[in-house]
Amino acid sequence: MASKMRLDIVTPDRIVYSKNVNRVIASTPAGDLDILPGHSWRITSLEISAIKIIRDKNEQQLSLSGGFIEVHKNKLMVLASFVETQTEIDGKRAKAARVQKELKLNGGIVLTRRARIRTYHSTAP
């Protein structure tokens, strides 16, 4: 069994991540999916969440707007409409979005997909 697998994370605008990794943990509607080298073939949707990437002894998290993941022959492809690294998250924007979402929640307004994405980014570590 190989000790690494290829991970490519792609948005319509750019290739966000493209490296060999040891492990990936992603949130799906059915729960967390822990992917190691040699994982069986799978395609599933992803929740608005963080994807955890373990490469050698380093761990990195990227914020996803949801999307899809395909696992096939030690290759993982993540397709998302929006991805942010921890350094790309704008604290002021995230705080303002959180306040706006709290107001909507208090008013009984159902959050749209975009509002859920902003709410997640405002609470991400």
From TrEMBL:
<keyword id="KW-0406">Ion transport</keyword>
<dbReference type="Pfam" id="PF02823">
    <property type="entry name" value="ATP-synt_DE_N"/>
</dbReference>
<dbReference type="GO" id="GO:0046933">
    <property type="term" value="F:proton-transporting ATP synthase activity, rotational mechanism"/>
</dbReference>
<protein>
    <recommendedName>
        <fullName>ATP synthase epsilon chain</fullName>
    </recommendedName>
</protein>
<comment type="subunit">
    <text>F-type ATPases have 2 components, CF(1) - the catalytic core - and CF(0) - the membrane proton channel. CF(1) has five subunits: alpha(3), beta(3), gamma(1), delta(1), epsilon(1). CF(0) has three main subunits: a, b and c.</text>
</comment>
<keyword id="KW-0139">CF(1)</keyword>
<keyword id="KW-0813">Transport</keyword>
<comment type="similarity">
    <text>Belongs to the ATPase epsilon chain family.</text>
</comment>
<dbReference type="GO" id="GO:0045259">
    <property type="term" value="C:proton-transporting ATP synthase complex"/>
</dbReference>
<keyword id="KW-0066">ATP synthesis</keyword>
<keyword id="KW-1003">Cell membrane</keyword>
<dbReference type="InterPro" id="IPR001469">
    <property type="entry name" value="ATP_synth_F1_dsu/esu"/>
</dbReference>
<keyword id="KW-0472">Membrane</keyword>
<comment type="function">
    <text>Produces ATP from ADP in the presence of a proton gradient across the membrane.</text>
</comment>
<keyword id="KW-0375">Hydrogen ion transport</keyword>
<dbReference type="InterPro" id="IPR036771">
    <property type="entry name" value="ATPsynth_dsu/esu_N"/>
</dbReference>
<dbReference type="GO" id="GO:0005886">
    <property type="term" value="C:plasma membrane"/>
</dbReference>
<dbReference type="GO" id="GO:0012505">
    <property type="term" value="C:endomembrane system"/>
</dbReference>
<feature type="domain" description="ATP synthase F1 complex delta/epsilon subunit N-terminal">
    <location>
        <begin position="5"/>
        <end position="81"/>
    </location>
</feature>
<dbReference type="GO" id="GO:0005524">
    <property type="term" value="F:ATP binding"/>
</dbReference>
<dbReference type="InterPro" id="IPR020546">
    <property type="entry name" value="ATP_synth_F1_dsu/esu_N"/>
</dbReference>
